[in-house]
Amino acid sequence: MLRSLRSSLARFAVRRAAACQRFAPRRADFWLRLACNLTPVFGDPYPALVRLRRATEDRWGAVAAARQGTERFPDNPDAWMLLGEAYQMVFRQKDALHAYEQALALEERPDAAVAAGDLYRRAGLLQEAAARFARAYAAGGGAEALWLNAQTLFEAGEERAADEALHLWATQVPGGLDRLSEARAELRGGKRED
After folding, report:
1. Nearest one of 125, 121, 127, 116 to 158, comparing CA atoms
2. Cα–Cα distance between 124 and 108 in angstroms, integer?
3. Helices (H), strands (E): how many in the chain?
4. Residue 99 predicted with pLDDT over 60
5. Rounded distance, CA 192 to CA 48, Å?
6. Mind listing the domains of the chain with CATH numbers?
7. 68 vs 185, more confident
8. How far apart are CA 170 and CA 47, in angstroms?
9. What single DSSP character describes residue 40?
């Protein structure tokens, strides 16, 4: 009973925040903070508060809101994904990577694996990046994860593994086998194949 009442109040507060977000962002922030404190589960209030604070150029406030979400709901991978995204807004790549890895520890999800792989790749840790992209594919990331895997393996000098990943990619996209040689050339040229 109390849980459903808290959920209802949190939804009401989110609706109030949405209604006043354009003309009164401080009031919207108040309503969203209230919703975050009331909600019994990680849900709409936290991402909405992070988006609002980013829109009002309060990026550290967005990080604080996302961090509060992980403190209240440490076993929720969505909370950790939100924290990773918030850390990227303030260019804290190591902290963002930690958040994405925590999300992966809780649940195999392609978005977390791709985000972690991207950060490893930017840091020059190509083997770790390729492993995360392969993990993203295994978690259902599809052809995009395979392409990223092949590209990263090629950058790491693992041409045979890159060719294997590229061939698997070609089986996943329409007409991919017909475009395989073109895709291989684009991969080696560093361009993106759509």
Report:
1. 127
2. 24
3. 11, 0
4. yes
5. 33
6. 1-107 (1.25.40.10), 110-194 (1.25.40)
7. 68
8. 36
9. S
